[in-house]
Design goal:
This protein has 14 helices and no strands. By secondary structure, it is mostly helical.
């Protein structure tokens, strides 16, 4: 950093071969053309395949209905999962188009392909249209109500991108609704009745993750840039988000435990031990809170979860234990 006594003209004049500094303005970033390979990589980053893991909620009805080894149902559930991946890609693309001006003032999000000009706006719009059309064409192969839920999921997310994400608490509620719609779609695609416990756990857990994400964003931006980066952040406070995290986290754990000890659940799975699996979700939520508070400069805490070895190990252990208990898997003698 230059000292206060340095002469204003002491720096040498830039030459014609001197590259532009890395702190180029948003306008300069947006005007940089991209080659075919860079554009292709930008498109992949824009649809965020690493975030498609959220769509495993579509498979939840099959797992908890003890139908995981019914291959016809698994194929239908897999098709529903693929449809939601395409819809999610379209939603992420539209969201980045809308957010491009705000992303350019964010220290991390300014490197997103659309904000940085790697993926031109016209290309991004075409990509979103193609993804949506292909997704809905696939959805129409399923039951009509499944296609309707898919359309509702897309419309709800467009409303979120254009308006609802600017309204505090409504934005997080919108995120939670998206997860609930995924579970409903999985049940409709496979014609499996959905437990009210499953819907409640999904909604509460999604609220918990949403409040964690807002808490992370609030800690990672300055007051001066918070409104430009996300308007709803101005209405949030750290203490309020801390309370919301605590309430939804405890409610999620209590609801899950209530499900595992419910007489109907024990009778269906012929097991009194499913409550032991609550240890993993509780640890996972505590680990998520740790990631929110310890990595303020990361782009997203949900993205950090997928990179965090303890969190992922805990998740896979939970899946293995649940499947083993639900499906009575035992080592052969």
């Amino acid at each position: 950093m230059p000292s206060a006594n340095r002469a204003p003209n002491s720096d040498p004049p830039p030459s014609a071969d001197t590259p532009a500094p890395s702190t180029a303005s948003p306008v300069a970033l947006a005007s940089t053309p991209a080659g075919p390979m860079r554009l292709a990589r930008g498109i992949v980053r824009t649809v965020r395949p690493h975030q498609w893991m959220k769509n495993v909620f579509v498979l939840a009805p099959v797992v908890f209905a003890k139908e995981l080894f019914d291959w016809a149902l698994v194929i239908r559930a897999g098709g529903a999962f693929f449809v939601f991946c395409l819809l999610a890609g379209a939603v992420y693309t539209i969201n980045d188009i809308v957010d491009a001006p705000a992303d350019r003032v964010h220290p991390v999000k300014r490197h997103r392909p659309i904000a940085a000009g790697v993926v031109p706006i016209n290309v991004a719009k075409g990509l979103a249209v193609v993804l949506f059309v292909v997704a809905m064409a696939g959805a129409l192969y399923g039951p009509p109500l499944f296609a309707l839920v898919c359309l509702l999921y897309f419309v709800q997310n467009i409303a979120y991108s254009l308006r609802l994400k600017k309204i505090a608490y409504a934005d997080v509620g919108c995120i939670a609704l998206g997860f609930v719609l995924r579970v409903m779609a999985g049940g409709l695609a496979t014609r499996i009745p959905i437990s009210s416990y499953l819907l409640a756990c999904t909604a509460l857990l999604a609220l918990f993750l949403g409040f964690g994400k807002r808490s992370h964003e609030l800690a990672g931006v300055s007051i001066a840039t918070s409104k430009k980066q996300r308007a709803a952040l101005e209405a949030y406070t750290a203490p309020a988000l801390g309370r919301a995290l605590a309430v939804t986290g405890v409610a999620s754990a209590v609801t899950y435990i209530a499900y595992t000890v419910d007489p109907a659940t024990r009778e269906m799975f012929h097991s009194n031990w499913l409550w032991l699996t609550a240890i993993n979700p509780i640890y996972g939520m505590l680990r998520f809170v740790h990631l929110v508070r310890s990595r303020p400069k990361a782009e997203s805490p949900t993205q950090e979860m997928l990179r965090d070895a303890p969190f992922m190990l805990n998740l896979f252990l939970w899946i293995l234990v649940v499947v083993a208990i639900v499906y009575k898997l035992r080592p052969s003698a």
